[in-house]
Amino acid sequence: MIKSPFVIISATTEKQSAVESFKQSHALKNHLINNEISFKVVSSKTKISFLIPNLSEKDALNIAKMFNQESILTVDINMEAQVHYTNGACCKQMGHFRVDEGGDNFTINGIKHICTGG
Fold first, then answer.
1. How many domains does one find in the chain?
2. What's the pLDDT tens digit per position in 46-83?
3. Residue 1 lies in a domain
4. Which of 60, 76, 77, 96 could share a disulfide with 7, CB 3.0–4.6 Å?
């Protein structure tokens, strides 16, 4: 069960091919492992992302910039989700983040995501 603030970061963009998306996701995973940052792999139908507990917004934005991402998703201790942009633009409230029954999977904006390990 998710019990602490966390961020969700991806390494892919809509313009990338499936092969390039796989390479970028693998590179981000290796970066997290090499820097001893704990994570869970999170997937939706179209994207692989990484759920990272207790990482500061600043550190998350720096990692996102390294992988040419436009934004990160943060979820606070009250389970309120917010998008933060790497270009410094103001954030966007996403509403309440809901953990699905069973513990690790979640739904936000009606889209189900699956945590697959780390």
1. 1
2. 678 898 999 988 999 999 999 988 889 888 888 788 88
3. no
4. 60
Question: Is position 28 within any domain?
Answer: yes
| Structural domain of 84 | 6-117
Q: How far is CA 58 from CA 45, 61, 71, 112, in A?
A: 28, 5, 12, 27
16 within domain boundaries: yes
Signed CA dihedral, 37, 42, 47, 48: sign only: positive
**Residues with Cβ < 8 Å from 66, sequence gap 6 or more?**
31
Residue 106: helix, strand or coil by DSSP?
Answer: strand
Question: Which residue reads 């759920």 in tokens?
Answer: 51
Higher pLDDT among residues 91 and 25, named by residue:
25
Q: Could you tell me if residue 44 is left (phi over 0), alpha (psi between -120 and 50 degrees) or otherwise beta? A: beta
> Cβ-count burial of 37 within 10 angstroms (0-12 exposed, 13-18 middle, 19+ buried)?
middle
pTM tops 0.85, yes or no: no
